[in-house]
Amino acid sequence: MSVVRDLRVLLRLRDFRRLLYVRLLSQGADGVYQVALAAYVVFSPEKQTSATAIASAMAVLLLPYSLVGPFAGVLLDRWRRRQVFVYGNVLRALLAAATAVLMVTHAPDWLFYVSALCVTAVNRFVLAGLSASLPRVVDAERLVLANSLSPTAGTLAATAGGALAFGVRLVAADPDATVVLLGACLYLCAGLTSLSMAPARLGHEREATPPRLGTALAGTAHELLAAVRHLAGPRRREASWALAAMTVMRFGYGALLVLLLMLCRYDLSATPEGGLRLLGLALAISGAGFFAAAVLTPWAAGRLGPGRWIAVCAAAATVLEPALGLPFATGPLLVAAFVLGLITQGAKIATDTLVQASVEDGFRGRVFSVYDVLFNVAFVGAAGVAALILPPDGHSVPLVILVALLYGTVTAAMTRFERHQNSEKGDVSRETSPTPTREAGSRT
Question: What domain range includes position 63?
């Protein structure tokens, strides 16, 4: 198979392989850390968690570092990305260790959230840098496949990290703190692995006289506006539409995640630990959907085009999400976890490819930071809407229907845009093609 052959070629590329190792370790640590936070905040037996509390926690952890996102892009387009991976992961290791200390000492919740917020803020630099670095180690012909393998492998690593965290919780005397320390060790390994690449290999190219930090930060608004204008250019319209579609789909995913958390916590299991295990199973099945998307998307996007593939993914979600979600039963919800994993990751791979292929290297860091901000705001907004709609046990028909309508809107919008694009291409082709028939007829 050509996909298998191209995959083997990718894995022979030394720097792609090393960048992939950094992603696997880094996102594996993210999975460990996120399970520890979920267990501590949502599934602690002594806490009576509500949808409002979950939304508040998401807002505390996500909205502030959305403000860091734009600065991350501006700095990523000036700093060497390899150095970001080294120092960023080492810093996260230290901050995660501090979080473990706060758990053991039963520090106030606000102090715990500040520590967790710092880990997540640094994460913006690392993830945006990984996406922006990928075209530096892969040729354009295999970029779609690389976007299938690399981010999906990272998601699977996060899932594996979560599974590892569940295993550690079964044997550790102080499970929450122990799991966080495990995440700290993985962050440290990711930082050390980054040292295997040359400092300048991943860009950004050093300028002759690097700007002062104050000057760079002061120009953030101007730089972001330039990146948005670049993304909105006529040759990047499809990428802009895909990014908007993916943001709406991220909103739906966030709302369904809060619903799943509430169902696992209060309805589908008799105990908090049982609910946490069920959540872990659902996330593992969703990870299998991510893997299926990595296998399917290169073929599907190659046949249909990335934009049409996004429309197909959204259409499938429009039909399957209410069909599997409305029973509010364990079996259908686990199937839904697989389907939504496949659909969400498939659309994301297509969106990443469109953005990376059309955005110039000097803008990629800023554009992917804007990408991250949109995702985070959509996710927190979804949690807020879910908190307003969800009852204490998580059963909410209106929320399931609302998400289905959002997927349907994405389907209609992307389908209409792709038809318009094809129509424009056809018009241009007809205008630029020779018309010898009329001329020949006029001479006869």
Answer: 13-205+219-423
